[in-house]
Specification:
Length: 562
């Protein structure tokens, strides 16, 4: 019996008791979904509900009295071993071994679909992350947004949402000017400007621009007048840099549905259209030759310029047009994953959302991530061999691989600064969290192979699955953890907290390793295969399936062997 099935049983039992007159409550007050949770103290039972404390007073009864009536009715239901009332009205429920053990079959038969849910069904979500400027390799912060953003997208899709993964291609502004001037300087054998970009990659790209020009039968850019040369380096250099960024992200298993070009907002008239939309709503005013958005109406600390007095669009104007564009493309929620340096940006963005008549925090959501530090030999790694001034995604992947990198970046809350210990992530020990989880999955596959060699099979023609044979306390403990996976996925998606999945997987791995030491899937010596061996093979394979499903939600592989 799954938690969802138990919740449904509790609800139907409540309605039956109301219909029979044992409790006096309006059926409309009975929640559609009854909350069922694991007790903090395992000895209190398999599951607990506080529904009696929610409804007791509404029924004109003391919560404990209400709980006892419900407990007596539940105790008579199939699959329920015992029910007890505790404290002010908690109902603690212990399932029969057979009912609890059925979960193993449910998981195995559901396969990759187990854990998927419909809590976000009908939602259209635009999730923007990374969006690194095309002026250099993806830095460590960008790597974190890639791992977190992609995991979050997988979670929301698994919860029924239609998710658009989007990358905002910033190809409009002064940073592109500095990038192109840096390329030109290196091509000419000069030092890059003081405000330019350093690192070996600038020289590499400059060389490639020149090589591509010669291969195409075009003049070497350094032979052109300076302004023309810089324009060549701008156009081709940005193209090359962004192609490399996309390739690196793809190799990191972070792919996107949309690459949105900032420049298109200005060339298409989208900025002017967005301002006109806001003017029609009475949110725009003109002062000092500039065009302003009255964001103070919605809690911002000051009003914001959209068009400067010289007629040029302010940076914020592009943000306004971009948000409107996302909404007009059908997004119910536009979610932005931004770095810690964007904290001061939240107020104006939420005010802008409200000015369009939308709901801040619902239609527009902003998640701020903190910095990442690499640690090697107890010291912070502060410089890339290639980029020179920053640590890059490549540096991390080269050190520990994609799996360890993604897991390490996704297992912590975005709003916490993290240190990633390269020595730990490269180790094959239980202290390494990704190794610990992946090893648990590999162990389930090894157990399955050993079981096959000893004649233990899940083939119903050879031996039926008897869930009641899962009667060891270790079986019950492991089943209890498995049962929490769907709720964990749904909650992680709802709260935008992908790290909940990683921490769950570590909990499941610990429960599995303990179960492995306490029970057997294969018979000893010449002992015959019995129903317990078969049932525990089902349970073993259920664990492997949930570990694989959870790792996939984090973009991490589930190895067959380690």
């Amino acid at each position: 019996m799954t938690p969802e099935e138990l919740a449904s049983l509790i609800r139907s039992t409540l309605l039956d008791a109301a219909a029979a007159g044992r409790i006096s409550i309006d059926p409309a007050l009975v929640p559609d979904s009854v909350t069922v949770e694991r007790p903090r103290v395992r000895e209190h039972g398999d599951w607990s509900t506080n529904v009696a404390m929610q409804l007791g007073k509404k029924a004109g009864m003391a919560p404990r009295e209400f709980a006892q009536i419900l407990a007596d009715d539940l105790a008579a239901a199939d699959g329920i071993d015992s029910v007890e009332v505790a404290g002010p009205g908690f109902i603690n429920i212990r399932l029969g071994a057979g009912a609890a053990g059925e979960l193993a079959r449910t998981i195995v038969e559901a396969g990759a679909a187990f854990g998927r849910n419909e809590t976000l069904a009908g939602r259209s979500i635009n999730l923007e992350y990374v969006s690194a400027n095309p002026t250099g390799p993806v830095h460590l912060g960008g790597a974190r947004w890639a791992a977190v953003g992609d995991s979050m997208a997988r979670l929301m899709a698994a919860s029924g949402a239609a998710v658009t993964r989007e990358y905002y291609f910033n190809d409009h502004g002064s940073q592109i000017d500095r990038f192109s001037h840096s390329l030109y300087a290196r091509a000419m054998g000069r030092e890059v400007p003081k405000d330019g970009y350093g690192g070996q990659y600038i020289a590499d790209i400059a060389d490639q621009v020149r090589a591509d020009a010669r291969a195409a039968g075009e003049p070497d850019p350094i032979t052109l007048p300076e302004a023309e040369a810089i324009e060549v380096f701008r156009a081709r250099g940005v193209e090359l840099m962004f192609a490399e960024i996309k390739e690196r992200l793809h190799s990191f298993r972070a792919d996107f549905d949309v690459f949105f070009h900032e420049d298109s907002l200005h060339t298409s008239g989208a900025v002017a259209d967005a301002i006109e939309r806001l003017r029609e709503r009475g949110e725009i005013f003109d002062e000092g030759g500039a065009v302003w958005l009255r964001t103070t109406t919605y809690g911002d600390d000051k009003d914001r310029v959209l068009i400067k007095s010289d007629g040029q669009a302010a940076y914020f104007a592009g943000d306004v047009a971009y948000y409107l564009n996302k909404r007009e493309r059908g997004a119910d929620a536009a979610i932005y994953l931004l770095g810690a340096d964007h904290h001061g940006y939240i107020g104006r963005m939420m005010a802008m959302c409200a000015a369009f008549g939308d709901k801040p925090g619902e239609n527009l959501q902003i998640l701020i991530g903190q910095l990442v530090n690499l640690v090697k030999d107890g010291e912070h790694v502060s410089m890339s061999k290639r980029a020179g001034t920053i640590v890059t995604l490549d540096d991390l992947v080269d050190a520990v691989g994609v799996d360890a990198a993604r897991y390490a970046l996704a297992r912590s809350s975005m709003d916490s600064m993290i240190d990633i210990d390269l020595d730990l992530l490269a180790s094959s020990t239980s202290d390494n969290p990704v190794y610990y989880v992946q090893y648990a999955h590999a162990r389930t596959r090894n157990v399955a192979r050993n079981a096959a060699e000893h004649g233990v099979s899940r083939d119903p023609n050879e031996a039926p699955f008897e869930p009641a044979a899962l009667d060891d306390p270790a079986d019950a403990a492991l089943l209890g953890v498995l049962a929490q996976f769907p709720a964990t996925v749904a909650q992680a998606a709802q709260l935008r907290e992908q790290h909940r999945v990683a921490r769950y997987l570590e909990q499941l791995a610990a429960a599995y390793h303990a179960w492995y030491g306490a029970t057997r899937v294969t018979p000893r010596g010449d002992d015959a295969v019995d129903s317990g061996h078969v049932a525990r093979l089902w349970l073993n394979d259920a664990v492997g399936q949930v570990l694989a499903n959870g790792l996939d939600l984090l973009g991490v592989s589930a190895p067959e062997r380690m």
